[in-house]
Amino acid sequence: MQELDPLLHNQLRLAIMALLAQNESVTFPYIVEKTGASRGNVSVQLTNLEEAGYIKIQKRFVGKKPQTSASITTSGMQAMQEYTEALKSYLDL
Amino acid sequence: MKDKIFNEKEAVAVIQQMVTAGRHNLKQDAVHFLIWGWVILAGCLVHYLSFLLQFHQGVYIWPVVITIGIISSFYTGWQQGKYSRSTSYVDKINRYLWLGSLAPFIIASGIGLMYGWIYAYPMFATILGWGSFISGGLLKFKPLVWGGVAAWISGVLMLVFTGPELLLLMSVAILFSYLIPGHMMMKQA
């Protein structure tokens, strides 16, 4: 049985990765709204995922307002695929 | 959602929940179908009426409506991009699909100008149908897929006609491939 990636086997980090896997990029407020988690918690988990090389964080200005957005990297996508494969084997799917 | 370790079943539930939460919003796409749908329909009907009234300058409606369509569509797209909080892969493919349709439209217009518009209309209907059909497949919105097929059928019928009826067939094509699906998408969003 494949081992579940401990970094992804966490409710909030997995939710963030599932959102990013469907989109080319998503903004920080979008992640906060869709996951229902606190801004601080989302921020910490984004940093963890970025340090693991699973996501890329971009900062830019839209007009005068700063905007933070995140996108999944190739290794992040690979990790998600391996995670879902491992999940299937655990659940006998 | 909490920062916690959970079991495998909960993991599947989280993925499903996020897939549902991140579902594509049809309203953004609907606006573009409605802009172009109304603009082209207006062009067809004004041009057709000009034939009935034997007013020979009716063709000049086209540069006017196309300019209105381009400005409105680009402005709406720019505004949507500015305030958009997520860009899905479907958005990206759709954007390239429609931007990529501009070149065939320009080429078909060139053929119309050089060899006669009767050759261009079936091509316009084909391009409209092609865009709607693919967009419908990407957005999983069946009325767009069927609208695309209706535009192609209009395109085939256009091969039989050479007069102002082409404009009526074009109106039917735009009605089924843009306007009806556009309004349905707006309602569903």
Shape of chain B: elongated
- Listing every helix as H and every strand as E from the N terminus to the C terminus, the arrangement of chain A reads HEHHEEH
- Average pLDDT of chain B works out at 90
Shape of chain A: elongated
Count every beta strand of chain B, where a strand is a DSSP E run of 2 or more residues.
1
The strand order across the widest sheet of chain A is: 1-3-2
Distance between the termini of chain B: 26 Å
Largest sheet of chain A: 3 strands, antiparallel
Q: What's the structural domain tally of chain B?
A: 1
The total tally of domains of chain A equals: 1
Number of beta strands of chain A = 3
SSE string of chain B? HHHEHHHH
User: Number of helix segments of chain A?
Assistant: 4
Describe the structure.
The complex is a heterodimer of chains A (93) and B (189). Chain A is an alpha+beta fold and 93 residues long. Chain A has a single domain (11-86), classed as Winged helix-like DNA-binding domain superfamily/Winged helix DNA-binding domain (Arc Repressor Mutant, subunit A, Orthogonal Bundle). Chain A is built from 4 helices and 3 strands. Chain A has helices spanning 11-22, 28-35, 39-51, 74-91; strands at residues 23-27, 55-62, 65-72. In chain A, β2 and β3 form a beta hairpin. Chain A starts with 10 loop residues before the first helix and ends with a helix. Chain B has one domain. The model of chain B has no long low-confidence stretch (mean pLDDT 90). With 189 residues, chain B is mostly helical. Chain B contains 7 helices and 1 strand. The chains are: A alpha+beta (93), B mainly alpha (189). The interface between A and B is medium-sized, with 32 and 26 residues.
